[in-house]
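By convention, the token line describes the chain's fold. To illustrate:
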Amino acid sequence: MTKPPSTKPLLQNADRPVRSRPRKPRNPAQPNLPLDPMPDRIEPCLALLKPKPPKGPQWVFEVKWDGYRMAVHIEPKGVRILTRGGHDWTDRFPEIKQAALWLPVGTAILDGEAVVLDERGRSDFGMLQQSLGGRGGKKRSSDAVFMAFDLLYFDGHDLTRSELGVRRHLLEGLVPADGDIRLSEEVEADGEALLRVACEHGLEGIIAKDRESTYRSGRLGDWLKIKCIQSDSFFIVGYEISMAARGHIGALLLAARRGDNLVYVGSVGTGFKESAAWKLRGMMERIKRKTPPIHYAGRRKDVVWLQPTLIAEIEYRAWTDDGKLRHASFKGLRDVQDNAAVYEVE
């Protein structure tokens, strides 16, 4: 075995400056690699909801994280953290920003999810919202971590035209397995077995991705989401008054998008915490209107109609035959910057 040197060369001759080797002149016959301009923003690739995991060797799987979709831009002038709608939330995630500055890369765009993890390592949307001060809050979250699952730009090169396998290979060499920016692990497994395990551990579901796909913005089917329990975002278009309920909110009336219009999808009357209910009531008092913003043929009494600006995250079990949510429960409010996530009825 070769013995290590007994001295440290860099510490010898301390009075002499340490110099690098002279740089060789560039061979003019060697071509320069073209650099792609760094985009200011890339519309995210969105997962299409499916009832069952796909089958086939081209599909790989990840855990579905329950948080805010974000893009971390590492640029020569600094770091930007953008929501899926393009709003700058850099100041709200100082730990993620600092972790991005430490990554060994000059320029990059990371795609992922900002989450807060519970004691069992599961993402908790309610904890994330609390750390940010609730909807419309201005708090900075020191608890959030960024689960990176794609790399769209890397040291001067646009990777959106590269296959997922290439992008993941570069991402795994860049992002650590732990820290404030960490890798969302890819799992090669049977999709149905993985979904069953995910549901048994209380996770929201799994994501399936076509390993041969390029990065295409929109909901085109290259990525699929399969959920254990359905959870989506809906506009709050009114509420029913009940003096016996928390915040005097008997139920929230919900709507989804249908093209340029809104359509009523039912109500939710459970899942409210005392303090959150009263805070929500105060917010709704400021956006009341006299007429419903949707076509409504129900028979509820004491309904207060609202401007459709508040977005609720709702957990539910299924849809009824007439297009209403079944066994719905209120999880929290989404920020207005995330309004692209409102459920769309086909």
Summary: The helical segments are 94-102, 125-131, 164-174, 191-200, 274-285. Residues 1-14 have pLDDT under 50 and may be disordered. The domain at 64-189 is CATH 3.30.470.30 (D-amino Acid Aminotransferase; Chain A, domain 1). The CA atoms of residues 3 and 140 lie 51 Å apart.
